[in-house]
């Protein structure tokens, strides 16, 4: 990664968390306002979460497709301005909760509105050159995603392995007949992907024009009930009946005595190698067209991944299986050139994982909270995750979307732990969060990223995700309209100046 010895800083906040009067953060005017404030604060990076369309549980790390984007992020304002919907159509969304994303109500109201807009788009612009060019350019995945989404709606279930046999097995004649009889409904999903891309490109171009780069994110694995597994099941390990017989997870540790059973199908790497990693090339190319820098979740899985029998009750008896990461990244570089990738290298690392990361010049990650956790009953200043120990080729965070907010994390510490943290930061409890942000920003790491919740000093009620849980608290946090104030902007602009970072 060519960092050219410039120190960078950024804000971590997903698009869904932006202020908006339409039930969810979107690609509309509030996103542009946020970018202006981000720049005014001196930051030059905006890190978002994966952009894929979410399914059950609303997690962006378990998307319905590795190629499509989330239609729920389309701006109702833009649809109205382009004449696809009426003013009173989008006003139905203004009654939704503004404090958090209420996904159930949002989807029930917004998806019919989006489909109405898509039909009007098809009527007005369905034959224009831009849309036709888009369909031709994205043919690798677009038609499959549109068919999958239509069948998902029809069955009210994304678990395609439970669909009727002709659709589950992708019978060619059955799918052709389905397309002919439901042409407009299926094409709506293609139209929505085009509309999203047009809106998003406008936003990204604006970000780049003011000196802000976007850091994107992808999960290493795909969802079992996704368009990826339905359209290309041969890319994943299966038994003789065609069922996915091996799944992913992590082994038992101090936090989980039975490990974590993620349940995602694992790749049949031999098939990927024989095909010269064409699926990966398409996936990474598609994502890097949308973002400037790409963070890959669970990077260590490219060196070796933890494989578990699909019928297991927990992750106790899995095995480590080697992945062809070296060959994969070589093939990607030959196809796409140098890769602007951040390696999420947290957890138990081996020398081979670090070698794969360093040989490819991918920055790793440092999370400040982890530096203060007791090691063998002791806390000391030698830990690699303490800010003063960070070295240059890393991206330093106070916390991530999976952590508690820094204030919430501090609130949960013992009195002795709090005392150590405050002594380390040379501050008081009231100023703790800002001083932790300052320590990360003043560290030697080339990149420093602060979650928006920490910039605003919010407690645990603003947490974005509780890993290994599935509830309506996850992924639902939203920033209020008035919280990113002039005082906050001035404070962090000064911190960017002091640390020699950002714009």
Uncertain segments are none
Largest sheet: 8 strands, parallel
Report strand order across the widest sheet.
9-6-3-2-1-12-11-10
Alpha-carbon distance between the two ends: 19 Å
Helix content: 40-55%
Mean pLDDT over the full residue set:
95
Overall body shape: globular
Characterise the protein shown here.
The structure is a single chain. The protein has 503 residues and is α/β, with parallel strands linked by helices. The protein contains 20 helices and 12 strands. The protein has helices at residues 29-40, 76-81, 87-91, 103-125, 129-137, 142-155, 165-168, 172-181, 183-209, 227-231, 269-274, 278-290, 325-336, 351-359, 368-371, 406-411, 415-425, 432-441, 452-455, 486-499, and strands at 8-12, 45-47, 213-218, 246-250, 260-265, 293-296, 304-309, 319-322, 341-343, 364-367, 394-397, 447-451. The strands form 2 sheets. An 8-stranded parallel beta sheet has the order 9-6-3-2-1-12-11-10. Strands 5-4-7-8 form a 4-stranded antiparallel beta sheet, with no helix packed on it. The longest helix has 27 residues, at 183-209. It is globular, with a radius of gyration of 23 Å. The two termini are 19 Å apart. The model has no long low-confidence stretch (mean pLDDT 95).
Write a concise synopsis of the structure shown:
41% of the residues lie in helices and 11% in strands.
Feature tags:
503 residues, alpha/beta, eight-stranded parallel beta sheet, four-stranded antiparallel beta sheet, 20 helices, 41% helix, 11% strand, globular
């Amino acid at each position: 990664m060519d960092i050219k010895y410039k120190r960078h800083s950024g804000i971590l906040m997903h698009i869904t968390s932006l202020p908006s009067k339409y039930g969810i953060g979107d690609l509309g005017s509030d996103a542009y306002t946020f970018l202006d404030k981000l720049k005014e604060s001196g930051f030059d990076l905006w890190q978002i979460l994966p952009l894929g369309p979410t399914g059950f549980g609303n997690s962006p790390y378990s998307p319905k497709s590795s190629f499509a984007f989330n239609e729920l992020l389309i701006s109702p304002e833009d649809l109205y301005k382009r004449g696809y919907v009426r003013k009173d159509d989008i006003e139905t969304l203004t009654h939704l909760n503004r404090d958090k994303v209420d996904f159930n109500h949002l989807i029930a109201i917004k998806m019919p509105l989006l489909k109405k807009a898509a039909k009007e788009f098809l009527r007005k612009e369905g034959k224009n050159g831009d849309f036709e060019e888009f369909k031709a350019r994205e043919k690798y995945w677009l038609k499959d995603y549109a068919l999958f989404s239509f069948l998902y709606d029809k069955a009210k279930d994304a678990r395609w392995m439970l669909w009727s046999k002709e659709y589950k097995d992708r019978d060619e004649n059955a799918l052709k007949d389905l397309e002919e009889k439901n042409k407009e409904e299926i094409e709506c999903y293609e139209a929505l992907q085009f509309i999203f891309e047009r809106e998003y490109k406008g936003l990204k171009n604006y970000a780049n024009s003011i000196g802000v780069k976007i850091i994107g994110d992808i999960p290493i694995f795909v969802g079992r009930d996704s368009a990826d597994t339905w359209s290309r099941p041969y890319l994943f390990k299966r038994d003789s009946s065609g069922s996915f017989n091996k799944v992913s997870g992590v082994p038992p540790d101090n936090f989980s005595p039975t490990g974590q059973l993620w349940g995602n199908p694992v790749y049949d790497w031999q098939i990927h190698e024989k095909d010269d990693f064409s699926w990966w090339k398409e996936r990474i190319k598609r994502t890097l067209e949308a973002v400037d820098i790409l963070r890959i979740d669970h990077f260590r899985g490219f060196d070796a991944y933890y494989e578990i029998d699909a019928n297991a009750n927990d992750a106790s008896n899995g095995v480590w299986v080697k992945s062809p990461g070296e060959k994969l990244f070589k093939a990607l570089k030959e196809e796409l050139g140098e890769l602007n990738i951040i390696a999420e290298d947290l957890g138990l690392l081996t020398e081979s994982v670090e070698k794969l990361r360093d040989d490819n010049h991918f920055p790793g990650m440092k999370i400040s909270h982890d530096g203060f956790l007791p090691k063998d009953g002791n806390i000391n200043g030698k830990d690699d995750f303490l800010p003063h120990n960070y070295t240059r080729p890393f991206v330093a965070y106070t916390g991530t979307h999976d952590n508690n907010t820094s204030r919430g994390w501090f609130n949960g510490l013992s009195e002795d732990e709090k005392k150590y943290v405050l002594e380390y930061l040379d501050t008081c409890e009231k100023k703790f969060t800002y001083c932790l942000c300052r320590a990360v920003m003043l560290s030697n790491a080339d990149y420093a990223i602060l979650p928006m919740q920490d910039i605003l000093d919010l407690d645990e009620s603003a947490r974005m995700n509780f890993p290994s849980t599935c509830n309506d608290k996850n992924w639902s946090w939203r920033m209020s309209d008035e919280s990113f104030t002039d005082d906050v902007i001035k404070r962090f602009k000064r911190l960017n100046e002091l640390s020699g970072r950002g714009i």
